[in-house]
UniProtKB/TrEMBL annotation:
This is Undecaprenyl-diphosphatase. Pfam families: BacA. The keyword Cell wall biogenesis/degradation applies. It catalyses: di-trans,octa-cis-undecaprenyl diphosphate + H2O = di-trans,octa-cis-undecaprenyl phosphate + phosphate + H(+). InterPro entries: UppP. PANTHER family: UNDECAPRENYL-DIPHOSPHATASE. Catalyzes the dephosphorylation of undecaprenyl diphosphate (UPP). Confers resistance to bacitracin. The lineage of its organism: Bacteria, Bacillati, Bacillota, Clostridia, Eubacteriales. Bacitracin is thought to be involved in the inhibition of peptidoglycan synthesis by sequestering undecaprenyl diphosphate, thereby reducing the pool of lipid carrier available. It is a multi-pass membrane protein. Its EC number is 3.6.1.27.
Length: 291
């Protein structure tokens, strides 16, 4: 069987979408589902591969976080194990940081293991994603208007990612569970959780990046364990490899741009985009144009 270059091109498009949308609050999964429907990437013949592909290329985006924050990751991981073994106080910062990340991951792990099959069966459709776009956009506007405004006046705002409390971490982790509804956005959910728990926008955003590491690696491993690799062919392997690299490179650029954007602008622009796109898609879904 020859190589299907058109399919590989479609995979590159999906990888670009993943790299752009993973860390901004507009839902990467939702966009990949919808764009995949539009370009014919998610057909009945390719669904098993495309489902796995869309999860695995998220690892490429996560690799971008690891590269950009490598110094902090390396230093704090060393400190975590040093403190765990010796209780040296100078290493406590790294221990507390990764403990906060692990605590923030627990709610998603518990709910993910319990409801994963239900989510995959009931929520991965253009119609449900469209509703999630709208709901997530409205929530983003409400939470930003109410909590972010108060944070600017508050003296108790957490402006240092190393000072996130375990209570704040668990609150953010609970909000991260909203992202199990495809289209809600893991980034938007965790940032809203950060605002509500008293984190500054930059700290909430960076913490969402670190929370993504265990959450998305775990989701990818779960998908890979279930995947039937006997269906893989040359086209699929090439698409997977190129998709991973493209998602990594695009995310590398987008993360820095997003952080710089947040220093100057509110999130409202993303919320408005979500609501407008979501309403259009809801209309298309009810018209039977998308399913």
């Amino acid at each position: 069987m020859g190589i299907d270059f058109i399919f590989i091109l479609k995979a590159i498009v999906i990888a670009i979408v993943e790299g752009i949308t993973e860390f901004i609050p507009i839902s990467s999964t939702g966009h990949m589902i919808l764009i995949g429907e539009l370009i014919g990437f998610n057909t009945s013949q390719t669904k098993a591969f495309s489902d796995m592909f869309e999860v695995v290329i998220q690892l490429g985006a996560i690799l971008a976080v690891i590269v950009l924050y490598w110094k902090k990751i390396y230093t704090t991981v060393i400190e975590f194990f040093v403190f765990a073994a010796t209780r040296k106080q100078e290493a406590k910062r790294g221990f507390n940081f990764w403990l906060a990340v692990l605590i923030g991951t627990i709610p998603a792990v518990i709910l993910g293991l319990k409801f994963n099959d239900f989510i995959e069966e009931k929520l991965f459709s253009a119609k449900t994603v469209s509703f999630a776009f709208v709901v997530g956009g409205i929530l983003l506007v409400l939470v930003e208007n109410y909590y972010r405004k108060d944070l600017r006046k508050s003296k108790r705002i957490t402006k240092d990612i190393d000072k996130i409390s375990f209570t704040q971490a668990i609150k953010v982790g609970v909000f991260q569970c909203l992202a199990m509804w495809p289209g809600m956005s893991r980034s938007a959910s965790t940032i809203m959780g950060g605002w509500i728990s008293g984190l500054s926008t930059s700290v909430a955003t960076e913490f969402s990046f670190f929370l993504a590491i265990p959450a998305m690696i775990g989701a990818s491993l779960l998908k890979l364990i279930k995947f039937d690799f006997s269906i893989m062919n040359k086209t699929y392997w090439i698409a997977l490899g190129i998709g991973f690299i493209v998602a990594f490179l695009v995310a590398l650029v987008v993360i820095e741009m997003f952080i710089n954007f947040l220093k100057k602008k509110p999130m409202r622009v993303f919320a408005v985009y979500r609501i407008i796109v979501g309403l259009v898609l809801v209309g298309l879904a009810f018209a039977g144009i998308i399913k």
